[in-house]
Amino acid sequence: xxxxxxxxxxxxxxxxxxxxxxxxxxxxxxxxxxxxxxxxxxxxxxxxxxxxxxxxxxxxxxxxxxxxxxxxxxxxxxxxxxxxxxxxxxxxxxxxxxxxxxxxxxxxxxxxxxxxx
Length: 117
Fold this sequence. Notes:
It contains two helices and ten strands, in the order βββαββββββαβ. The protein is mostly beta strands.
């Protein structure tokens, strides 16, 4: 689960992309994702990385977190043409259903809890 500090549920269907292949593939070639779905990328070390939408057929929201799981930045990317670079110090990247940022009222500086159980 992914939770706000208040305990409010942000995502309940979570997949982790920790290896090179799963991180390179991301959401490519999927038809869509559920509203409560999140793909969590765990980077080997905090850094800035590029995120592209090549072969992603639907818009997504992206949350960039530091090592303490505080939100550094939030982005919405369009299918196929979306491209962005994460802030320096990014340790976690969460890709979610488009509209999640607004629906959960997420803001830079907010903390997020990621529960792998």
